[in-house]
Design goal:
single chain; about 325 residues; mainly alpha; 3 domains; 14 helices
Length: about 325
């Protein structure tokens, strides 16, 4: 038994050196790629007028991301590139981060997290084993951190869209009922909307229509860009009315009412799930305290009437 414990402790003592070697290997590979691709990345570092504002995590490592993206553009398979592009589009980052740049960002975050782990282990050799166990998977957490961050962006964007979209449709209906055509009503609705996801996305639709793209193509691009069921249903309904020659105002009214009902239904479902979600924290934190208080009162009462066992009574004296 003692031999196995000694063997395990010996293996754990080699982990800092192993992590240091892996980090050094990753850094060496990164520098090699950067030196090899510095000319190829010159074009990417040039004109970026097409790019939307980039997030902070991208701006922190932008030069390295650009240089490593050249290498990842050769390694990413088309299917994976399409999958990453769809996720970036759902998060509103399609024109801010390229798929190969996203993969480079994951790699850089993993290297930075691994470097922090090695630095912590080397500068604090007397660290407790529990903290060391928390540091070892830090590089893996760093690799998946961009995915977690992107998922948060997608969820936040979807919540805002579902909240503001019915109001946008109401404004569009009011404009068209006042005698404006679709493009003019859309422009007035966009001006009345607060800054946010809906205003930005429909502003792009309006620019595309004014640039000569058909309304059908602009809306299909919107549905592909946002990748949200409510937007896809709206686009399908409007395009179907345009093909059949129906009245678009009535369709917009029905869509606004449907989106509003979906929002209320989602709120009711969330409210019904709230007690179930509160049950776990109550069982973990509130109920044990209540049981401890009740147990203490019972013990005191038993001690007062002399029915407490001698061993427990000695502890209370």
């Amino acid at each position: 038994m003692f031999d196995s414990i000694t063997l395990q402790s010996g293996l754990f003592s080699y982990l800092p050196a192993l992590l240091g070697a892996l980090t050094a290997a990753f850094l060496t590979y990164s520098l090699t790629v950067i030196i090899r691709n510095r000319r190829a990345a010159t074009g990417l570092l040039g004109d970026e007028s097409w790019r939307d504002p980039t997030p902070l995590i991208y701006r922190l490592f932008k030069p390295f991301i650009k240089l490593l993206a050249v290498e990842f553009s050769k390694l990413i398979k088309p299917a994976k590139r399409e999958r990453i592009s769809n996720r970036l589009s759902s998060g509103g980052l399609r024109y801010a981060i390229l798929p190969e740049e996203f993969m480079a960002m994951k790699y850089i975050c993993a290297v930075v997290a691994g470097g922090i782990t090695v630095w912590s282990l080397l500068t604090m050799p007397d660290m407790k084993a529990e903290f060391k166990l928390l540091l070892y998977p830090l590089a893996l957490v760093g690799f998946f951190y961009p995915d977690i961050w992107l998922s948060d962006q997608i969820n936040r964007r979807r919540r805002i869209t579902l909240k503001e979209f019915p109001f946008m449709l109401d404004l569009l209906v009011l404009g068209m009922r006042a005698g404006l055509n679709y493009a003019a009503a859309l422009g007035h609705a966009i001006e009345a909307m607060p800054n946010g996801v809906i205003r930005d996305e429909f502003s792009k639709v309006l620019r595309e229509i004014r640039a000569g793209k058909s309304r059908r193509e602009a809306l299909l691009t919107l549905a592909d860009r946002m990748n949200l069921e409510a937007i896809s249903n709206f686009v399908a309904a409007v395009n179907q009315v345009e093909e059949t020659g129906g009245e678009i105002v009535s369709v917009l009214m029905v869509q606004a009412e449907q989106r509003r009902n979906e929002r209320f239904t989602a709120a009711e479902i969330a409210a019904n799930k709230a007690p179930i979600r509160m049950l776990i924290p109550m069982m973990l934190f509130l109920f044990p305290i209540i049981f401890m208080l009740l147990t203490f009162i019972i013990i005191v009462k038993l001690y007062a009437i002399g029915m407490l066992p001698e061993g427990m009574a000695e502890l209370l004296k």
